[in-house]
Write a structure and sequence with these properties.
The chain has 66 residues and is an all-alpha fold. The protein contains two helices and no strands.
Length: 66
C-alpha cells in the first residue's frame, strides 16, 4: 500500500464522518463538504492503485530480463 492509497482511505473516512455529521445536524454545507472529501479520497486512492500497478509492471519487466 502506498501513501496515496493510505491518504485516500483516510480522506474517504473523513468524508463519510463529515457527511454523517451533516445529516445528523441537518447541516447541508457540512454534508456537501463530506461528499467532496469522500470523492477526493476515492480519486486519490485510485491514483495510488494506478501507481502500484505501474510499479508492479515495471518490476515484472526487470525481473523477466534477469
Amino acid at each position: 500500500m502506498n501513501d496515496d492509497q493510505t491518504q485516500g482511505k483516510l480522506d474517504k473516512l473523513k468524508g463519510e464522518a463529515k457527511r454523517g455529521l451533516g445529516k445528523l445536524t441537518n447541516d447541508e454545507t457540512t454534508e456537501a463538504e463530506g461528499n467532496k472529501d469522500k470523492m477526493k479520497g476515492e480519486a486519490r486512492e485510485g491514483v495510488g492503485d494506478l501507481k502500484e500497478k505501474a510499479a508492479d509492471k515495471v518490476n515484472n519487466v526487470f525481473d523477466n530480463r534477469r
